[in-house]
Amino acid sequence: MRVGLARLAAALLALVALPLQAEETPPGALPFVAASPGAGERLVLAHYFPPFPIQIGERGASGDYYERHYLRPEGENGKFARGGGYLRQRPLLPPGGLADAAAGFRLDVARAARIGIDGFGVDLLDLDGRHWRTTLALLDAARDAAPAFRIGPQPDMSALKDVTPARLAEALLVFARHPAALRLPDGRLLVMPFAAERVSGTFWQELASRMRSAGAPIALVPNFVNARTMDAYAGQSWAAALWGDRGSGAGPTQTRFAEQARAAGYPRWLATLAPQDFRPKDLMAWEVDGSTGLASAFTAAMTGKAAGLHLVTWNDYSEASELAPSSATRFAWYDLTAWYIAHFKRGRPPAIVRDGLIVLHRRQLFNPVDIARGAAWQLRGRDAVSNRIDVRLFLTAPASVSVTTGGIKSVRSVPAGFQRWQVPARPGAVRVQLTRAGKVLADCTSPHVIAAHPDRHDPLYAGFSSLRGCN
């Protein structure tokens, strides 16, 4: 009886998350019709990182833990002061905050399901601590808030260094018994270990044997950080994935991996898509040139006939790779990723049903070696710093777009469809206007001013959408 009442209470609370999410993203917030979770033959997973729920702790007068510590250079007793603080943004809170942690997990699930993500691949950082409790809460949140949404285990082999196949099987059986677990149509539990190469192929064979003996067979998808030994895992795997590169190299890296996976005997592969990547804690950043990296990886997914997309990440704020609605990126990456998800699942670009634009730009002209902003950063990858304003346009017919940055206005005629225009950024306000035949379709002043003299390094591409009130 107590279990039944608890589930009824959870179901009633889940009804709060769904209207809230629907209010956040009504049909008019997107210039196309988004895909649905559980629809189509191609799988779309988002990597969920347990340390960063929507809210951490209680919200007092000075905010929650994000606001008191993670977003401040002096936070956590100055632990990350050298990098200007741990994070550059936080998950986007709903008005009034959250009633409890469970409400945040339900909102995460509802937000992801709204744009067609099929499930979270949750990073298993531990098997009995607070991150494991988050994992269990996500399973319940999916069951309660989005019936078609699933949660899959992604054992983190960089964190579970001493785990045995027996202990890991014990944890995975918890997934296998839960109705929200991610399974293939044949019933197998999808297991996608991060840095799978850190243990031998024999480890995964023993794990699979134990799970099979327990009546819970698995489908293994090794997610490689270093794929040099990938041949050793091919015979027992359902698919393979590569954590991958960022920036303009993202697509070519994924293409090469797909070719290597096929040559090694993998029956299919999953493509990795990431919005951006920088790490204040490590003083390093990759230049992604606005949406270049995301678009490059998506092209590789389509041309390489990927069986699925692995979105990296939903919420790893420590590496700034989050696509979830957030305080500075707002819904920009979320909405743009929704377009690629719909395209991927349907096999063709979605029909554009209303005009709109998504804009990405930094809040400073990033200069990693400017020591006036703090310790110098290392620029990783193959791309030089670009500092451009990236305008993504969704047009039902040809139109004219103008971008004003630093008081200088640029104008361009743009054909119908899904288009892109980039303009060099300058300090000051950013204004973007969209017109057609003398009619103003959008007139947005960015909520983010480009600082002339920033006091810390901030490579984050923040954003806004014209269909969300220029926010």
Automatic annotation (TrEMBL):
It holds the Pfam family Glyco_hydro_71. Residues 1-22 form the signal peptide. Coiled coil: none annotated. Keywords: Signal. GO terms for molecular function: glucan endo-1,3-alpha-glucosidase activity. The keyword Metal-binding does not apply. This is Glycosyl hydrolase family 71. It comes from Novosphingobium arvoryzae.
